[in-house]
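[Backbone geometry]
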Amino acid sequence: MASYSFLITGASSGLGLQLAVEALKAGHSVVATARNPTTAAQNHPEVEELGGSWFQLDVTHANTKERVAEVVREKGINVLINNGGYGILGSLEDTGEDEFAQQMDVNTFGTMRCIKGVLPHFRSLGKEGSPTIVNIGSIVCLTPFPATTAYAASKAAVEGLSEALAMEVGPLGIRVVLIDFGIFRTSFLHSFTKPKAGLGEAYVGGSVDGTVSFLENLAGKQPGNPILAAKRIVEIVDGTGLAKDITEQGYGPALRVPLGSDSFRGVTAKVEAMEEVKKLETLSCSTDFDQDATTA
């Protein structure tokens, strides 16, 4: 099995930490990023004990692209996992523009900055160097629910970016993988942010209030196992385990991969629901210039 060199953002907790550990256990090298790498190293000595290293990175900083470009060259990185992010849970009406902008800055622009940082080096590797970009999406983009407007918007942008990016850099030998995550038992539900304005009176007792309460009560009982999720992502990158010969399993290049039974159900339900669009063929195609104006 080939050895890969990972750069993992947001690795001081949750999925990012598990990804670092599982990649190291699989024999790969890892540079794990954190806003405070000293604290991260103290809290999680297993990363360095397994041979990994920490790197200070705040993806909202303007110099993110340059810092990423420097570390990928120095460490010979060929796998970027854009895991860093957080979520706001609350109604769109209650979410301030500054809060919405910060959500997009971390989850979407942070992902973009890191990708721009790795691309020059990844291009130089060619297909033989197996350069891979893994972006973390969310099932809320395909099956959204109340109270996730800001978070869903940020992740929907990452999903659209990933699909278009795959077509841009695929011919250059760079692989892009988009992971649609379900609800996993990480610290996410313990650390989500609520709008500073609180919950507006119009939403008290309604769907937004109910969703936030449901997710708060779900914390610690989420169905997804982050350790297994990390294993699957490492296998998707290096082509081992359940992802071995993935093209022969019917996934093709596997751009979009749902993880979690809830995510798989959501993706398949979305595909089935989109079948309804076929009923709109006459209406949809009636607006082209080649339509007969007398009958259109």
